[in-house]
């Protein structure tokens, strides 16, 4: 299994400087809509980095545990928590195993803009399913696998000046150098087809129930989506009638 720690230890200070520098928390209406009402819920933030999504989850009423493989990023997260306490707990662990997390210990889990940076998807999804209580849900956001591929770019129409997204190598799953405008990159990302995400979650017992593809700010992201969000849910435990017959999640 690929170790997640080393790259993010090197990048931690630069990453922290470019994401939520004042510690106010994540500002993402699509994310808020998918997680919904969090009061009374214990929520795991997987691959939380320096904790901007954990702070938003706490502000929305959740009891939050942030989990990350980088001690340096967690140090930044704990510093924000010390400055403005929200009751967030931070735990050092690998998203690909979540080995320190007991089974069925969370009502919900999230992973904001990180799944595409984790080398091995299948064990990560299985680990997330394992730590959820029956009926628990998972919300994630990723760069859109259909429009941000290992070979992509933008084409300007010299007639009307519009910008179009061009993509290639969609079927080439695996690591690639992802170049962005952020100071800390290029970095290694992991491309997977959309069908790989959908099928992997279904196989782990977390079928995707809802997807969102928000319109972006730049003109090119107003014609195709740059991000993909989804919410999946673990089946509720089947109840059993007095005759021993499974009745299903709704007891029917």
Describe this structure in words.
With 252 residues, the protein is an alpha/beta fold. Helices cover 25% and strands 29% of the residues. The protein has one domain: Vaccinia Virus protein VP39 (Rossmann fold), CATH 3.40.50. A seven-stranded mixed β-sheet has the order 3-2-1-4-5-11-10. Strand 1 (42-46), helix 3 (52-59) and strand 2 form a beta-alpha-beta unit.
Instruction: Tell me the fraction of residues in β-strands, as a range.
Output: 25-35%
Please, how many helices?
A: 6
Ends: how far apart? 42 Å
Query: What is the count of structural domains?
Result: 1
Low-confidence stretches: 238-252
Strand order of the largest sheet: 3-2-1-4-5-11-10
Class in CATH?
Alpha Beta
Q: Which labels suit this protein?
A:
single chain, 252 residues, alpha/beta, Rossmann fold, 7-stranded mixed β-sheet, two-stranded antiparallel sheet, 25% helix, globular, disordered C terminus
Summarize the structure.
This protein is of the alpha/beta class.
Layout: helices, strands, pairs:
Layout lengths: L4 H14 L10 H7 L6 E5 L5 H8 L3 E6 L2 H13 L5 E4 L13 E7 L8 H11 E12 L7 E6 L6 E6 L5 E5 L8 E5 L2 H10 L4 E5 L14 E7 L5 E2 L5 E3 L4
Parallel strand pairs: 1-2, 1-4, 2-3, 4-5
Antiparallel strand pairs: 5-11, 6-7, 8-9, 10-11, 12-13
Helix pairs in contact: 1-4
